[in-house]
Amino acid sequence: MSFTSLGLPPALIKALENQNYSEPFPIQKEAIPAILNKKDVLGIAETGSGKTASYVLPILMNMQGNTANKNRHINVLVLVPTRELAAQVREVFQMFNSALPERIKSLAVFGGVAISPQMIALQGVQILVATPGRLLELVELKAVHLSNIDTLVLDEADKMLNLGFKIEINRIFELLPKKRQNLLFSATLSDDVTNINQILFNDPIVIKIEPEVINIDLITQSAYTVTEEKKGPLLRYLIKNNEQKQVLVFVSSIFRAETVTDKLKKNGINAIAIHSKKSQKARTEALSNFKAGKVQVLVATDLISRGIDIKFLPCVINYELPRSPKDYIHRIGRTGRAESPGEAISLISPIEQHHFKVIQKKMGKQVSQINSEDLDLKGL
Q1: Has this prediction a pTM greater than 0.70?
Q2: Nearest to 197 by CA among 5, 42, 59, 335
């Protein structure tokens, strides 16, 4: 199935092609036509499944020729749990909006920063992406009005409720017009999400995308015991000594992604970092170049990793362990796909040993460990 068959116009198809989107994700195949037809949608899908574009594209389409509104009376409200997601979602709106003949002003608002610049920026905004607390502050200051909203989106609803936004969300619901389109996306269907579903929806179209099944038996796993300060030299040794042509390296933070990438480049290894602080365009371009073999090493954080889909990736390296065994499985599952074998290597510092034992127990597999002290890491 192509994006054209979903009812999107040539301008958006071209924008998708420019961002190297060749075909729609499963959730996009079902959600885009439903939202274009102004249906309520309940989408259950993992983070990184393509859900943001699944509502951004049809919302922009539906707003073409239908954007007349009083100033500070927004048309579309997207509620999200974190400032990082707010910025990302707004960026996707901007990216696709720039391809359309009728430009629609969007804005992301969130707490932790001064409110005055956001109040000023709300002039003429039609699509608002907001965290619940900051939105209510702006409403109380009469900087924005919610009475004309015709589309409400709750993105990562489960996370929003887990972070304690239930009271704020209910207060926002009371300010919205009764007649509107409701779109709710969540990774899980918890009791709280189900309750919101019952309050919000009018005969919704339910889309449930099952999580990817990862066959870890296709993945050869190994681990190296190493001190924290020698992780960098060991990583470079493994890439050079094993003549790795395409390696996905996982780290735990944006700072680490940048420092690891810089060290790889200084040692003659073609590497690029991908994380939430990068623009959508930069992330898409980095992933495209990595897939095409133009970049040897992609250094990624977990926040971005679920959007990485490469069928024949030969090797994954955990520079640092993830927080949960589930994330570990997801990381190594980027390799060993399409019934092709893959390799997963973990660099384990003394402080990570206990956590690695927990991961192995949950996984039901023992991973052989190699002492890195026996390796010659000089000059790396």
Answers
A1: yes
A2: 42
